[in-house]
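task queued by scheduler; priority normal; single chain, no ligands, no partner chains; default sampling; output format set to structure tokens
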Amino acid sequence: MASESGGLTEYIQHHLTHLTPEASPGGFWAVHLDSVAVSLVLGVVFCLLFWLKARKATAGVPGRGQAFVEIVLEFVDGQVKDVFHGDRRILGPLALTVFMWVFLMNAMDLLPVDLLPWITHKFGLGHFRAVPTADINMTFAMSLTVFVLIIFYSFKAKGAGGYMHELFTAPFGAHPLLWIPNFALNVVELLSKPVSLAMRLFGNMYAGELVFMLIAGLFSAGSVALYGLGLIGYTVWGVFHILIIGIQAFIFMVLTIVYISMAHDHH
């Protein structure tokens, strides 16, 4: 709690520190074991849950679990249909995975701030952050994966020659004097996609996590009134934050679909 760590500032700094191996480099290249572990566990939970429900699916009246899975599948498939008009056999499962995985990682923000750090502390781990999407390394890893898919589908849909021709001739025209401006503009547009994906998700989830930490600091302020305000604030912000969690997962999924769909378009 805040009083145990020497004040609210140190409390927040402690909770913003990732679990990293001693040999890990610092900065952007640091290996955040907490983000990797939580994201892997949630990915396995998502795959296992949907696999079990699909395996036990019946043609009759569905149970609540099957109904939930069907609603999510229909929702995601509808979004893919609206944006992409080609073969959806790969893009549909990809969109579903992106939406559910990001949603589950975002939802870790709803756990009490001190819960997982308290549990991991019992096992001798000094730091543990529970929200992978509040880690810029993780959001950039996901957005760079989407970036690789954009490049792959651009070459697949247009061929190497067609894609290179598009890079140098769109949008201003095929005149040789316009090749460099065309290429520069297309590179900027291309690089902006993973940056926008990563920063939008990271910024919203980091801000939400920080608000939870600020509110949790009131619990140890030594005042009954502040403790009560902390409980009210935690509840109100938690209810509001559910909307942010869903919206950010939806935006990441839709932008992934849009960017890959744009890779199939010819200019």
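post-processing summary
- Confidence is low (pLDDT under 50) at residues 1-5.
- The longest helix spans residues 224-264.
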